[in-house]
From TrEMBL:
Name of the featured protein: Uncharacterized protein
Entry's Gene Ontology BP terms: proteolysis
Organism from which the protein derives: marine sediment metagenome
GO function terms (MF aspect): serine-type endopeptidase activity
Length: 142
């Protein structure tokens, strides 16, 4: 169907907007199940330089379900002593930092256990407006 649409470009602005919205919805429904929440704990310091735990929150995307690899931003896991990953199905798993690049702001985290296969998300997991603004809901903000 996508190849048919590519050969029949929208004829006016309204059709172009609808085409864009439908394309975003279609693409998002395929990737939304791979979005995860990542929580971290790092050791910071209070006003008197005493060690205190600092919690962080970010997101990531599963890019290798068979081996449990997740791509996230380096700033999400920077100096983390503890990494936890909340999967879309509600399971939580400890994460291990495999590698990071602060210049590119990318990091790879690995989790144990089998991951579900990527499947189409339910439309409830997406918030779409008529202006094609979209938010993919992560497991923590259902």
């Amino acid at each position: 169907e996508a190849s048919l649409r590519a050969h029949n470009p929208p004829e006016n602005q309204e059709e172009a907007v609808l085409f864009l919205q439908n394309t975003i919805i279609e693409a998002s429904s395929k990737v939304a199940p791979a979005v995860v929440n990542i929580t971290t704990v790092r050791i910071g310091a209070d006003f008197f330089f005493n060690p205190v735990p600092q919690r962080g929150l970010g997101s990531g995307v599963i890019f290798d379900q068979k081996n449990g690899y997740i791509l996230t931003n380096e700033h999400v896991i920077h100096q983390a002593k503890e990494i936890k990953v909340l999967l879309p199905d509600g399971r939580e798993s400890e994460g291990k930092l495999i590698g990071s690049d602060p210049i590119m702001d990318l990091a790879v985290v690995k989790i144990k256990g089998g991951l579900w296969a990527l499947r189409e998300a339910s439309i409830e997991r997406l918030t779409i407006t008529k202006t094609a603004t979209m938010r993919i809901r992560t497991p923590a903000n259902k």
